[in-house]
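Board notes (copied after class):
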Amino acid sequence: MSKLRLIRSKPDKACVNMAIDEALLELSSGGNGDLILRLYTFSEPSVTVGYFQRVSPDSYPGREKVRRITGGGIVLHGCDLTIALVISPKGFGLEGRDEVYRLFSRALLRGLGESISQLGVKEEGDLKVEGNYECFREPVASDLIWGGRKLAGCAGRRRRGNFLLHGSLRVYCGEDDDACSLEEFLEEEPEIDEVAERVAFGFAQVCGLEIGESGMSENERRVALHFEEKYKDPRWNFRR
């Protein structure tokens, strides 16, 4: 049976996290019905910037700023669980990025639905928001919402038939935007490990896979170390 390969990473810097995700995409063979799900947090307050977004070195003071290879808006990290999914869409019968994005929200609904009622997926709205924007300030189609406010969103990048999805699930209160959080729903501070378990369960259920937890291989670590230099480089992070 095909597996959901679950990687639970320790908190790390933004440049390291983005390098690992690109390495997993780069080395993925795809097409075999397997799926890589990496769940992680950031070791310090950070900002990841969508590939087509613009940010200056002076923006968001006190936060590490790194450009993603995935699209979408500017995402604040520090109160969220970040989700990296490497998938071959054809291997799961998915047509295009929009169906991958809907898979993301369905998985979160399945994993979190028992503890939080009235969650939903935004069905209408443009997937493309023009200009610079913070991801969590305005829900778009396929985002996970509650009462019209955004709880989770995602963006992707295709490479050689494989797809990297970056998703962010707001777990804790504390960011200065219009998003909601799991902490707000539950009226208590969630355990991040329990949230991660529910997210992994949701993806396994929606994709019909068994979970097999693993660490990174030596080759994946080597390639990630190579990509890390890019994500430390101001010419990449502030080039647009």
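Comment from the instructor: The first strand starts at residue 3 and ends at 8. The chain has one domain: 3-237.
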